[in-house]
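Human:
Take a look at this sequence-structure pair and walk me through the tokens.
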Amino acid sequence: MKKRERLSQIKLSDSQKEKLNAEIKAFYLEERGEEIGMIEQMQLVELFEQKLAPVIYNRALDDAKRWFSQMMDNVDADYYALYKNEE
């Protein structure tokens, strides 16, 4: 059996980071009435990337597995529904 490669750390594209920086800046201004500098924005994005992204990824993976299991249960039920009575 082929050994699975470990997934690399989740990395955001430059455009995704720029968008998040703008969202963080707007959040601080709207919610806290504060300006936040570019360095602080970048630090928050890095924190999210390192700490929050893996948690969200794992949750999404668990949700996908749960959905796939439900679909396989449906396939199993549909399979047996096709059986004909043997008389």
About this structure: The chain is about 70% helix and 0% strand.
